[in-house]
Amino acid sequence: MTSPFVSVSELADSLAGATPPVVLDASLELHAPAFDGDYRKDNGRPRWLAGHIPGSHHVDVATRFSDTTAPVHYTHPEPQEIADELAALGIAADTPVVVYDTTGTMWAARLWYLLRWIGVEARVLDGGYAAWVAAGRPVETGETPDRAPVAPWTAAIARRAWVSQQELAERGADDATPLVCSLPASSFDGSAPTRYSRRGHIPNSVNVSSRDLFKADGTLKSRVEVILAYEGAGVDPGSEEVLLYCGGGISASAGALTLAAIEVTAVRIYDGSLEEWSANPALPLVTV
Known about the structure:
Mean pLDDT: 97
Distance between the termini: 38 Å
Number of helices: 11
CATH architecture of the largest domain: 3-Layer(aba) Sandwich
Number of domains: 2
Radius of gyration: 18 Å
Low-confidence stretches: none
CATH class of the largest domain: Alpha Beta
């Protein structure tokens, strides 16, 4: 299985090759809440303008790759909408793509997950922009000329990717399919403020913080460390399927990325996550 990650040296070599990938910067800054209901985010384009991988293009996941008519943030759009956005960016169905960000790989993971859902050959730069800079690779500032659009192409769903609120609400306490919250422990146990309506986690779920699976330099921890983190929460890497959620489907996408790195690909994400779940007072949340 090909790793979902690409190293700085691999990316640099491929950019110098005959068929370089399209590089997308998915940076977006979602601020930590200071109080319950505190939801603040900043577009990542200013970060990209200040410095980026040469030839890369910034995309705003919150608008271009989300259903902006949905009642919660970052709801996945229809497959064809994703394909149409990619075509406008000069990306065909068989164009290789590398995604990175400047904000902890969470947003790169989200775009990667959406692209893999429709079968696009996408990988994530391990360590993101910080790793590129640390390696002494060249950077650009300011605008980059847009790529010429390609002809529209028809999207095809490559894998099952989503689990609904109803399916989770109907889960029995003895359901053996792991349900993993990818948020930090303080969000899982309700001790930290939340951006959403109520604190806590979905009953019968376990916690593996996706952020904790990355080292201080932003690169993924070792395969053994990732496996042990999931096993420590009671998640067998050999599980038939793993279900993931977080606050709004972003950290869960990073969870899916880390699982793919240990060759666990049968995963589905609850896209509405706690933003949707907590808004329904009839649905329970657990604090510990």
